[in-house]
UniProtKB/TrEMBL annotation:
Descriptive protein name: PDS5A protein
Family matches, as SUPFAM superfamilies: ARM repeat (SSF48371)
InterPro entries cross-referenced by the UniProt entry: ARM-like (IPR011989), ARM-type_fold (IPR016024), Pds5 (IPR039776)
Keyword check for Nucleus: yes
Length: 1262
């Protein structure tokens, strides 16, 4: 601080707040600033002057007027040093405060002073600068004294005001970019200061200049850093001076963008296009509406008109904006009306945009609808609902139906977006779910959409909704029936995706595991058990297809676990790979089938995708023993040591690490499916058993409370089905199930089902020790059977208790069976006759070579009693059904045909027989079908013919629909026989013959179901290329048709067009061709070959009959009618060489006249009775036309299936047709006799193979 000796001027002093300062000294300080002193000296003297000015009270600066004028001189205000100018500005700010309202400043210097003030904002950009605080104090002082009011005294206040706003925005932008997180408080203080500064200045303006409004709104359009500052300023000015100016500016911008001509490419590179300017303006409208609706009040009518604009881009942009405006609802007190209340017409027009012709407009409207629905849900959750929000609630309710309609939009992006909107709203809160609940079920049906991404979005939506709302309730012990539709829809989708080959099955399994069951969420055993209970209880709805989907899901999981176990056992035992190395090139050539073990091939069935086999081969080559031991530990159902939640989670993390380390993460879907411990463990079963007993599990700490009855009922049903799929987790609790088997009828039925499933899976589990430690298990099961027989929902309890006997050793089992038969025999004359017959049926059903028992006593006594009951017409229906079931289970073929499948007496009075309510025909047919399914009864032509005739009677128009439904269910079970008791050939014979009777069913859905069954059977037969199962199936059908009663009646007529037989053949032909659409012509050609091959054989049982030839002719006629390109084609003699089923056909005897026909050339034919299915030499590559050999009656060897090459010759190879007169054919006379329905007219000159090749090539190309 410079010190100068002050001159004495009369010793005059004045008092300023206790400070005695000589007036001349202050004048000297200010004067020396213009005398060319250094910047530091000037700063020092200005600081002293600032101290004096700061301490001078307002209105007492009369003696300082001259000094104040010195501070306004250009030499001071325009000093080269910025710091000098800063302190000069601070002095001038104090001067303005002292001399208010008339500062001693010349009018022409006001603009320079304001420029000086504005210039000092540059110090505010860096909070770490030395002078930052001085500058901040300067503008705080100017704000307090309203110093910038001087601009209204200048000649051009608009320019100065615009300059102030521009510099303010730039200052805040630089400060926001320069300041880091540690200076966030400084930035907030700076924003508050600048906001107050601008507000104080702009509030005094009568009208905001257009330039100022443009500067402010440009920041809002660009969403820059100062946008928040601008919105705060406009919020304060909305009800004063800013509303009119902002509305006019926005309308002018929209009009300019709408009416501007198209720009050239060079102009677009320099300036924004009209569309970009319009979009930026709409962004500003949205931001300003949220600040205050008054700022855009005059813009809203224009937006309402633009909603129906012819310009698609403008309509799309305005639709997106209006949706956001309608959704905006101010928080706190609703002092301002919402848009839906003030502009109801704009609500209707926006809703109409959901039906717009343009996809982009509909998508924009859908986004707005989602925002509106969120706001509606938020408002509806508040209590009480504000009165001025009723219009918004009504608009939201109307949009729910529109969103549901958009889920069916032709555009897949819009369908997917509607699903996402529903998920966002419904998953946000319970109010949102309640709002969209009427539409969610319909929207969820998009899970069967044709587009994969739509299906995936829908599955994700439902899974997340369940995890948000239903899963927390289930794990807390509450029934969540409200969300039961979600697992049902997911399981139905799983069934459809798996059966139709839509893919994404692995993704759906991941949703089940992650969202539905909550795996990986760190839940305890009791919570995981309740999570599975909720899933099972919701999905196991017998009224829908979800139960089938659930069973398919769990069965695929069980089968994958068994396949992986067998593979791991073989791989670990061998200690070397079971598959070829992918680097050897074998997989690329053969698809991995060469050199792979059966266990590896069986595991490949559960892989999805083209790269799955390669990844499995990569995993097969891993040499890490820790990986194999951990995988075997996790897949073993018998080892429950790792099933505890904490240990299981650690094991899964380690397995994930090993998979990543060995680069086989692509096998995660397979391993996820094969791991049963993630879904069910013994501690979860223990929790379910506690709930069954109406006790809360230990984890709930509710020992004094009883579990709800509904929860106990659901747990009982769940435990009853658990052993089918998770026997390893349930078998440790077998003793507990035995105890529960005698508590009540419902408990007995559930326990018996569970025990039977455990017994069935005992061998698969590899457990040889005794699972049940109850000595009197046989007596307990008998008591449980008696109690379960009274349960209405019980179905076949006698078969379940018989299956449960496998839990006993052989000696104890036979003792239990003998005691059961004694009990049943003692009840034959009592009121429990039905239970006695049923129990005996279950036991004798397993009494055959290969069954559970052998040579049980008392068979004749039960059969005699059953025959006596069936001979009495007055017997009760339930007793007759029990007798029928026993005859089917224990009787011989002749007994079954005579007692159960005999035709009804048509001469009896219709009222007396009451055929339309008598369940005996359908029940008898179902019982015989069940026995055929078990393999106890041998298949014969007579049995099939009689059974088909009885089924045809049950499908008549006078019979109830329930009969056909029972028959259909029994036929569907033929495709899944228990165990391996039924040979593949016999199963195929049943599946392609008996279901054809349903072509006469009057119910369309039954015919369609049977059609799908036939397609599945033909597909499985065609896939086994190493065995000619498809030809075998066609031959069995021809023989079945020839022996059918319908065909026999048509053959016996003098002249017949075979209408019913043709209907059966058409049903079969359509199912066969639809089983493989790409190769349908090849399949049809195969049928024609078998039909022509039949001419060389006769029926083994009736050699003198030509019924099989006529049946083949009917089938050939139908095939040629269905495939006209094959009509009239004669198959090559080499193509018809083959064998027929030895049980059904025998080679035709060739007469002397036939030998003399041209073309036979002395070829010897086999003698009558020549064997048709005899093995040929291994080196023989061509099969003889009529192989010779002795007949072996009743042969059950594999020779019954005719012998053909391992791979059929390609049907695309051209074959030259042989004309009827060509040498070597020898078939003209036979064809003329045995083909009465052959097509007449001009025959084609092309060969069958050539026509087939062309037709197939065209279909494959198209």
């Amino acid at each position: 601080m410079c010190r100068h000796k002050p001159p004495q001027q009369g010793g005059q002093f004045f008092l300023v707040r206790g400070w005695q300062i000589r007036a001349w000294y202050l004048y000297f300080v200010c004067f020396t600033c213009e005398a060319g002193v250094s910047a530091d000296a000037a700063i020092s003297r200005l600081q002293e002057a600032f101290d004096v000015f700061q301490r001078t009270p307002q209105g007492q600066g009369k003696l300082l007027e001259d000094q104040a004028r010195v501070a306004t001189k250009p030499d001071v205000m325009e000093h080269p040093s910025g710091e000098v100018r800063l302190w000069a500005a601070k002095c001038l700010a104090e001067v303005l405060m002292i001399f208010v309202p008339r500062p001693p400043i010349e009018r022409d210097r006001i603009s320079s002073i304001l420029t000086l003030f504005i210039e000092q904002m540059g110090w505010l950009t860096d909070a770490a600068a030395v002078n930052y605080q001085h500058a901040f104090d300067l503008f705080r002082r100017l704000t307090e004294i309203r110093g910038f009011m001087l601009l209204f005294e200048t000649a051009t206040p608009e320019l100065v005001l615009a300059d102030l706003v521009r510099v303010t925005m730039a200052t805040y932008r630089k400060a926001a970019m320069a300041l880091d997180v540690s200076w966030a408080d400084n930035l907030e203080q700076l924003e508050a200061l600048l906001t107050q500064l601008l507000n104080s200045v702009l509030a005094e303006a009568d009208d905001l200049p257009g330039a100022v409004v443009g500067l402010l709104l440009d920041e809002v359009k660009q969403k820059s850093k100062p946008a928040g500052l601008v919105k705060r300023v406009l919020a304060m000015l909305a009800r004063r001076t800013a509303a009119v100016a902002v509305n006019d500016y926005l309308n002018s911008c929209l009009a300019e963008a709408r009416n501007s001509p198209s720009e050239s490419r060079e102009e677009l590179q320099l300036v924004p296009s009209a569309a970009e300017r319009s979009e930026a303006t709409l962004v500003a409208v949205h931001e300003l509406y949220m600040v205050d609706p008054a700022l855009v009040a005059r813009v809203l009518p224009n937006l309402q008109a633009d909603l129906v604009s012819k310009d698609v881009s403008q309509r799309r942009a305005v639709t997106a904006l209006v949706g956001q405006l309608l959704a905006f609802c101010p928080t706190g007190a609703l002092t301002r009306p919402i848009l839906a209340s003030s502009h109801p017409l704009i609500v209707e027009r926006h809703r109409d945009r959901l039906d717009d012709a343009d996809d982009g407009v509909r998508l924009a409207a859908l986004d707005g609808a989602g925002a509106i629905l969120k706001s509606t849900a938020s408002i509806s959750s508040t209590k009480p609902v504000p009165s001025d929000c009723q219009e918004l609630l009504a608009a939201g309710s109307a949009l729910v139906l529109k969103v549901k309609e958009r889920s069916l939009d032709p555009n897949d992006s819009i369908r997917m977006r509607s699903i996402e909107v529903a998920l966002d709203v419904a998953a946000e809160s319970m109010a949102g779910y309640g709002l969209l609940e009427p539409a969610l079920l319909e929207i969820s049906r998009r899970i069967l959409d044709k587009k994969g991404k739509v299906r995936e979005a829908c599955a994700n939506m439902m899974s997340r909704l369940y995890a948000k709302h239903s899963l927390p309730r289930w794990i807390s012990g509450q029934l969540a029936e409200r969300w039961s539709w979600i697992p049902q829809q997911l399981c139905e989708a799983y069934l459809v995706w798996n059966n139709t080959g839509l893919g994404q099955v692995a993704q759906l399994e991941e949703h089940f595991e992650q969202h539905i069951l909550g795996c990986g969420a760190g839940m305890g055993g009791h919570q995981r058990g309740l999570a599975y209970l909720g899933f099972y209880h919701s999905a196991a709805d017998r009224s829908s297809n979800s139960s089938q989907g659930l069973a398919l899901l769990l069965s695929k999981k069980r089968d994958a676990n068994e396949a992986l176990q067998r593979y791991l056992d073989k791989r670990i035992a061998k200690g070397a790979p079971l598959m070829p190395n992918p680097g050897d090139g074998v997989l690329a050539i053969s698809g991995g089938s060469i050199g792979a073990s059966p266990e590896a091939e069986n595991l490949c069935v559960h892989l999805e995708g083209s790269s799955g086999r390669t990844l499995l081969a990569t995993m097969d080559g891993i040499r890490d023993k820790a990986f194999w031991s951990l995988l075997q530990l996790l897949t073993s159902p018998a080892d429950s040591s790792h099933h505890e939640s904490d240990k299981l989670l650690d094991s899964l993390k380690e397995l994930d690490r090993l998979l990543r380390m060995h680069s086989v993460m692509g096998l995660t879907p397979l391993i996820r499916r094969a791991l049963l411990c993630t879904w069910m463990s013994p501690d979860q079963v223990s929790a379910l058993l506690d709930l069954w007993n109406r006790r809360w599990p230990e984890g709930f700490q509710r020992e004094e409370e009883s579990a709800p009855r509904d929860l106990a009922t659901a747990a009982r049903a769940c435990v009853a089905d658990l052993p089918k799929f998770f026997a390893g987790a349930v078998h440790p609790h077998a003793d507990h199930l035995v105890k529960m088997a005698t508590t009540s009828a419902e408990d007995a039925w559930a326990a018996v089902r569970a025990l039977a499933s455990i017994a069935k899976r005992k061998e698969a589990l590899g457990i040889d020790n005794r699972l049940v430690h109850t000595a009197q298990l046989g007596d307990v099961l008998l008591e449980a059977y008696q109690m379960a027989s009274t349960e209405k929902s019980a179905h076949d309890p006698h078969r379940k208790v018989t299956q449960a006997l496998k839990l006993l050793p052989d000696q104890d089992r036979m003792l239990a069976v003998q005691s059961w038969l004694v009990w049943a025999q003692s009840k034959l004359c009592s009121a429990e006759k039905v239970s006695a017959f049923n129990l005996a049926s279950g036991l004798f059903e397993e009494d055959f070579p290969g069954g559970l028992f052998n040579d049980l006593p008392s068979r004749s006594e039960f059969l005699g009693e059953a025959q006596s009951i069936l001979s009495r017409a007055e017997a009760a229906t339930d007793i007759r059904c029990a007798a029928i079931e026993f005859v089917a289970a224990a009787g011989s073929e002749d007994c079954i045909v005579s007692l159960l499948l005999a035709p009804a007496n048509k001469e009896m009075d219709q009222d007396q027989i009451a055929s339309w309510i008598d369940p005996q025909p359908s029940f008898a047919a179902c019982s015989v079908l069940h026995v055929l399914r078990t393999g106890r009864l041998k298949i014969s032509t007579q049995l099939l013919a009689k059974l088909a005739s009885r089924m045809h009677e049950c499908l008549g128009p006078s019979r109830p629909t329930c009969d056909s439904e029972k028959l259909l269910e029994a036929l569907q079970r033929l495709q899944h026989p228990p165990g391996s008791r039924v040979r593949l050939a016999n199963r195929l014979r049943l599946c392609v013959t008996l279901p054809l009777v349903f072509c006469f069913s009057p119910v369309r859905k039954h015919r369609e179901a049977v059609h799908r069954m036939l397609q599945a059977s033909f597909t499985k037969a065609a896939r086994r290329m190493e065995e000619p199962l498809l030809e075998f199936a066609i031959a069995c059908f021809i023989h079945f048709l020839s022996s059918a009663e319908i065909f026999q009646r048509e053959v016996s007529e003098p002249a017949s067009a075979f209408p019913n037989s043709s209907k059966i053949c058409s049903f079969l032909c359509e199912a066969l061709l639809r089983s493989d659409v790409q190769h349908c012509m090849e399949l049809a050609w195969t049928v024609l070959q078998v039909c022509d091959r039949t001419l060389d054989f006769v029926d083994r049982e009736q050699p003198a009959s030509d019924a099989v030839h006529k049946a083949a002719s009917v089938l050939r006629y139908i095939v040629e009618k269905r495939c006209p390109s094959l009509a009239g084609q004669v198959t090559d003699g080499r193509a018809t060489k083959g064998r027929m089923p030895a049980e059904l056909f025998v080679a035709r005897r060739t007469s002397a006249a036939q030998k003399a026909l041209p073309g036979n050339d002395g070829q010897g034919a086999p003698e009558p009775g020549a064997e048709v299915g005899e093995e040929t030499a291994a080196a023989e590559t061509e099969m003889a036309l009529l192989p010779a050999g002795p007949v072996q009656e009743g042969s059950c060897t594999p020779a019954e299936v005719f012998q053909t090459p391992k791979r059929r010759a390609s049907l695309l190879k051209a074959r030259r047709p042989l004309s009827p007169a060509a040498p070597g054919s020898g078939r003209s006379v036979v064809a003329a006799v045995a083909r009465p329905m052959a097509l007449t007219g001009k025959s084609s000159s092309l060969s069958g193979a050539s026509a087939l090749s062309s037709a197939s090539k065209k279909r494959r190309t198209s």
